[in-house]
Each structure stands twice: as structure tokens, then as C-alpha cells.
Amino acid sequence: MYFAELEQLNENETREFDIYVNDKSWYDNMSPEYLSGDSIHSTEAVEVEGGVKLSISLRKTKNSTLPPLINAMEIYIQKELSQKETNQMDEKSMWNVKEVYGLKRNWQGDPCNPGNFTWDGVGCDSNNSSNIVSLNLSSCELKGEIASSIANLTMLNNLDLSNNSLNGAVPEFLAQLSSLKFLNLKGNNLTGPIPDALLQRLKNNQLYLSFDTNMNSPCSSCEKKKKKIVVPLVASLGVSLVIVFIIVSVIWIFKRRSRRPAAPKDLKESNIGGENDDNIFSKKQQFTYSEILRITNNFDRIIGEGGFGKVYYGNLRGIEVAVKMLSLSSFQGHQQFHAELKSLMRVHHRNLTTLVGYCNEKDHIGLIYEYMAMGNLKSLLLGRSPSILSWEDRLRIAIDTEQGLEYLHNGCKPAIIHRDVKSTNILLNEKFQAKLADFGVSKIFSNEDDKQSVSGSLGVSTNVVGTPGYLDPEYYSTNWLNEKSDVFSFGVVLLELITARPVLTRARENAHVIQWVGSKLVNGDIENIIDPRLEGCFCVNTVWKTIEIAMACVSKTSSNRPTMNHVATELKECLAAELTWKNNNSMVESKDLLVEMMNYSTAPEQHIPLAR
Q1: Which of 167, 321, 377, 566 could cross-link to 426 by cystine, CB 3.0-4.6 Å?
Q2: Same structural domain for residues 49 and 138?
Q3: Same domain, 16 and 124
């Protein structure tokens, strides 16, 4: 009950009253102060006579000249919960974790129940809420050693302790958590080696383990001895390799320049290359509008459409092409056309769409690309296509896309930021090779020396462009653009590849795929993250590692995101592990088939079917 006196009482006035519940005295001589809030509450549940009626009355005392008042009242009804209470050992362990690390999280009551009020970062078994199965303490400023009480969470299958300041050795008890499937120790000050039992579970595909590469060093003193012996040899080899690398690089640059066609100084320059060139992809030709009409058969077949205009199917001397024609009503498209042509004139990579030529005749402006038979990635993942991309194919598509981006960031001088990486701008040919397309809003750093540094990252201040859902939130809020903006967008594409879900939905909660995946990870529900149509045909470890890469890419701050070069290394490791897993499974299936055939061949003769 809440009380405050709202009237300025005279000296001869008094407001005082007693409070009764079911005609029993509950509080005596209540006298509210003027414009000062006060509250009283019961310390235990009040029994209701007959379980039906609750009577509350305020009665003024003999000394009171004014009647009682009450400003507000809350009544709570005690209910028996249908769910079991959290396992006592689990609950005790969680309170110990909170005490050891001095966590300031709002952890109160039962960790798992009621289900809508589960502790932040704690996931409970959906079938039996009495056990804790997931614990996410990432980026919680934890210090000291890994709490021993975690060993008592026997049903734990997901433990994330990444990005803290934990130190000391990795404890053996983590290997004794038999249900543990995901363990993330990255970003701490832990010392090696990793316990053999954990490494063995990793080797047997029973555990996905993420740790800093400098941890698994079984003998630091041995390493120091080795370094003393190896350094002179490494130094001499290093000098030799540098000299060889410089020579090869100079030769490669001269060859590349000699082969590369010169870009036109402006769009009105005459044809680049002759009509009789054997390879139309070798040079960027300028075509007339009448030639465009012939190539597209009078714009007979539309294969795409965007804000710039429509894309048509074409045939150029027996080779399939795509022709993007600019709409006259699109002023922004006119700017993007010039930007895209400028970018494509200077990029050459197997994972970027190849520009064949262009048309620039007054009101007729268009670009001609190589034709990508399988369309864009989004239509394959979310469209009505009968074919379902395998997990191996998805990893290859991710690697192809990453390699195209890595070339733009590091292979081009000056660097290019794509600024609109999304699944509709990733095109696939008939061999499912992925190529990054649409450079209409790409940003070329005119001079690497013009880059400035903000919060330790090099970049430039520029107007914000991009697609909602894929747009880097840091770039959006600060106008500060660098390579990590493309990394964020690529991380969103990775989540699309993993989940086959739309990036944005109309749901009130978890509207973005990042939020949806994050909520699943917090609850330890990793198996339901990946596209269910894959039906378990994948190595679980590679899926978890890819999720980890994607979530690192979509970090809110660019400084916490990896470079595309680092992403390349991680994804290639995933693909190698996936292929190994696939080969091992194939060997097992072959053995099973051989046994079945042997059993069949030794069966009684009457069971052998006749030839037909």
C-alpha cells in the first residue's frame, strides 16, 4: 500500500488510521506525511478465509479528525508453479558464479522459472526446465580463473566465456562435462596447454572448441630453446624469400599491366577492342544502341529489375550475357552507372562479375555483363527453387564472396569498399561459383594517404548508402566508412546462408536475423539455427564455427570485427573439415554397402532375383 498526504493540515487537524485485513489488525497508527511517499507491505502471504474473500479496511483512530486515505495498492496472488524448480545444484552453482565474478546482472529468484523470466545469459532445457544447459558470459568483464562451480552444471552443452580477462590454466573439469558441445574461450588471458581430454573430444567431433592459438603450447621452455636454434636459419631464409618475392612481384606487375586494357578517359571514347576479338571478355567494348537491340532481341526477355532499371537476357556472338539498361527516370541510377563503370574498368577477379561492355548514347545507357545462369543467392535460399544448396555449397559460396571482397579491400590500389554487400548482389553461374555484383554505390579511396584514423581504424567520412538490414550500424551512426563496413554486411550474408531466413521480418521480437540467431545462442538452441532443409547432412563443428565467424563479423563496433583475410582463413578451415567429415561418412557407407552385398551374395539361391 502506498500513502502520501495531499493536503496541508492545520494545527488542529490530524489524519491517523489503522489497517485491517479480514478484520485482523495489520498495521497501526498510520499517519502519512505531507507530499512524502511512504509504503508498507506484508512479509508473508495472507491467508484468505475459505479461500474466497479478502477484506481490507482502513479505520481512523480516536485521535484522528480526518478520514483515512490511500493512494495506491498492489495485491499479489501466490501461485503454485507447474514447472519444477531449477536443480538445486545448478542453482547453487549459478549463485556461486555470480559471487565469484561479482556480476552485476539482475539475477534474482529461480534461474529457470518462470520460463519468461529466465536469468539473462542462462538457457534451460525446454523439455525439463530444472536443468541449465547454456551459459553465455561473453564480454562480462570476468577476471580471475574459470570458476570451479561451473563443473557442477552437469547438463551444460553450451558455455561461452569469450572476450573477458580470465587467466590461469584451462581446467580439466571442463572435459568432464559430458554434455558439453560448444566451448568458446577466445579473447582471454588463459595459458596452455589445452587438456588432452578436451582436444580428444574435439578430434572426435564431440565438441566445438574455440580458443586463442597461443594457448595450446605444451612446453614454453622448450619453445624458447627451439627459438634459439631456429632464429639464424629463419633469418637467412627470410631474407632470401623477401628477395625472391620482390623479383616475382615486379615481373607479375609488368605482365599484368601489359595485358590490362586501358580504360576510357570518358564514356564517349570510341570502341575499345575490335569486333573480331576471339575473347569478348578480354576488353571492355563500347556498343551502339542498335547493337544492344540486336544482342537482346529487342529486349525480349527480362531477367531482373532494380531502382536503376531492368536487366535483359542477351546473346553476344554465341555467348550469353546480361544487359542492364538505365531507366530515364532514375537520376540516382545515372550516378551509379558512372560509378559502376569506373569501378569495373579497374577490377579483374574470378569472384567479381565481369564487365563485357557498355552503351552510352544520349538517352540509352547500359552495361553488359557475363550471364549468371543460377541467378542471385537470395532467390536460391528463400525463393521457390526446388534445389537446396548443400552445406558444402554454402561454404564455397561464402568463400567465393569473401575472396571477391578481399580483393577489393587489399588487391586493388587504391582500395574499393563495395558498400552494398547483400544476397541479391551475389550471383551464381551454372557451376554455383559465386561472384559479387553491382558496384553502383562502391567507394574508391582516391588516395590511401587520404585515409584518416578514428578510434584506431583508418577510413573516410562519407554519406551513408546501403540496404537496410545489411547496413553497418556504426557507419550509419557516424558516417565513418572503412573496410569493416563490408565485413558487417558479409556477416549478415553468412547468417542468411546458415539459417535461410529473411534478414528482416515483421516480428516484434528478434526482427533481425542477428537478433534471432543471438537469442538461439543464449538459450543453447544451436541445432535449430541452421536451415532445417539440410536434414543434418553436415558436420556440426563446421556449422558452429561458421556461426562464430558470422557473429564476429556483425559486432557492433568495427574494431571488434575480423578482416576479410582472417575470415578467409577461418572459412577455408571449415570447408576442409566439412570435406574430411564427408569423406569419412562416405567410407563408412561404402563399408556398410560392401557388408550388405556380401550378405546378399551368400543368401540361399532362391532369393536371388532373375535378370530382366
Answers
A1: 377
A2: no
A3: no
| Residue 149 belongs to domain with CATH number | 3.80.10.10
CATH number of residue 323's parent domain: 3.30.200.20
> Which of 110, 160, 420, 438 is labelled catalytic?
420
Distance, CA of 6 to CA of 248 (rounded, Å): 89
Domain membership of residue 197 (yes or no) is: yes
Number of H helices and number of E strands within the chain? 12, 27
Query: Do 129 and 191 belong together in one domain?
Result: yes
Tell me, yes or no, whether 430 lies in a domain.
yes
**Could you tell me which residues come within 8 angstroms of residue 116 by beta carbon, excluding any fewer than 6 positions away?**
none
Q: Quick check: is 525 catalytic?
A: no
Residue 416 has pLDDT above 80, yes or no: yes
pTM exceeds 0.85 for this model = no
Determine the Cα–Cα distance for residues 459 and 415; give it in Å rounded to an integer.
11
pLDDT at 158 over 90: no
Round the average pLDDT of the chain to a whole number and report it. 80
CB 444 within 8 A of CB 435: no
Classify 584 in phi/psi space as left (phi over 0), alpha (psi -120 to 50) or beta. alpha
Domain extent for 231? 224-258
Question: Does residue 590 form part of some domain?
Answer: no
In a domain, 364, yes or no: yes
Angstrom distance (rounded) from CA 608 to CA 597: 12
Q: Are residues 489 and 523 in the same domain?
A: yes
Residues 206 and 240 reside in one and the same domain? no
Q: Answer for the pair 466, 420: CB distance below 8 angstroms, yes or no.
A: yes
In this structure, what C-alpha cell is assigned to residue 325?
A: 539498361
If asked whether residues 547 and 464 sit together in one domain, one would say yes
Do residue 105 and residue 13 come from a single domain? no
Q: CA-to-CA distance for 224 and 228, rounded, in angstroms? A: 7
From 89-103, 261-275, 343-357, 372-386, the region with the lowest mean pLDDT? 261-275
Does residue 442 share a domain with residue 319? no
In this structure, what CATH number is given to the domain that contains residue 395? 1.10.510.10
- Residue 235 CA to residue 239 CA, distance in Å, equals 6
The C-alpha atoms of residue 13 and residue 60 are separated, in whole angstroms, by 13
Q: Which DSSP helix (H) or strand (E) runs through 481?
A: strand 480-481
pLDDT at 200: 86
Task: Give just the sign of the alpha carbon dihedral 107, 112, 113, 114.
Answer: positive
- Domain count for the chain: 5
Per-residue pLDDT tens for 100-145? 998 877 788 888 887 777 888 888 876 665 788 889 888 888 999 9
Q: Say if residue 320's pLDDT is above 70.
A: yes
pLDDT at position 250, please?
A: 54
For residue 416, the surrounding DSSP H or E stretch is strand 416-417
Q: What is the pLDDT of residues 439-465, one digit of tens each?
A: 878 888 765 545 554 444 566 778 888
Tell me how crowded residue 59 is: count the other CB atoms within 10 A of its CB. 12
